[in-house]
Design goal:
Strands 1, 2, 3 and 4 form a 4-stranded antiparallel beta sheet that branches. The chain folds into 2 domains: 116 residues, no CATH class; 63 residues, no CATH class. 48% of the residues lie in helices and 19% in strands. By secondary structure, it is of the alpha+beta class.
Length: 181
């Protein structure tokens, strides 16, 4: 007869480790939100909600989403925050509100990141360049607004998607997204 007590103990240890690394990762992002004063930035740009989950918490979860390898917001809510008041519809409503200037928010965050960099480190060792990155982003469906067939030179054929132009700052070590179209 096979003893499964070791397997269960190992599974518990793995789950504890994964939860502790997610908590550490959460706290690191929360620290960055404090350093870059994201709450003040959102308030200054009038990105506010009347009731429910506060805006800073929603933006925090949106920033956390790509690092947790969830395919979409609904899976993120279902897997990570199943028993909380946070819902996928509140995140979608925040992102799709036409009164919020997300482009300006992105520019202000990029500016704060660049101001936090040490000028001696970036300018003495390596020159700083503005880079225009032209990337093809594939679309998942056919009934999407402004989608078209674009030739992707990396795979040598046309794909259904968008052509995204990103302006970024490159200092020889890191690429900082500045703006996108």
């Amino acid at each position: 007869m096979q003893d499964t007590s070791n397997i269960i103990q190992l599974e518990d240890k793995v789950n504890c480790f994964l939860q502790s690394t997610v908590q550490r990762f959460d706290s690191q992002i929360a620290d960055l939100f404090k350093v870059f004063r994201i709450a003040d930035l959102l308030d200054g740009l009038r990105i506010r909600k009347r009731c429910g989950v506060d805006t800073v918490s929603l933006v925090f979860h949106l920033v956390l989403l790509p690092f947790l390898s969830c395919s979409n917001i609904c899976m993120f809510i279902r897997n990570v925050y199943e028993k909380t008041t946070l819902s996928s519809s509140s995140l979608y409503r925040l992102m799709s509100n036409h009164r919020y200037n997300w482009r300006r928010f992105q520019l202000k965050v990029a500016r704060r990141i660049l101001l936090k960099l040490e000028p001696d480190k970036t300018q003495k060792k390596n020159p700083v360049f503005f880079v225009l990155d032209d990337t093809v982003r594939k679309a998942e469906g056919k009934l999407i607004e402004k989608v078209s067939y674009i030739f992707d030179h990396t795979i040598g054929r046309s794909v259904l998607g968008f052509d995204v132009l990103i302006l970024g700052l490159f200092n020889g070590e890191q690429f900082f997204r500045w703006d996108n179209v």
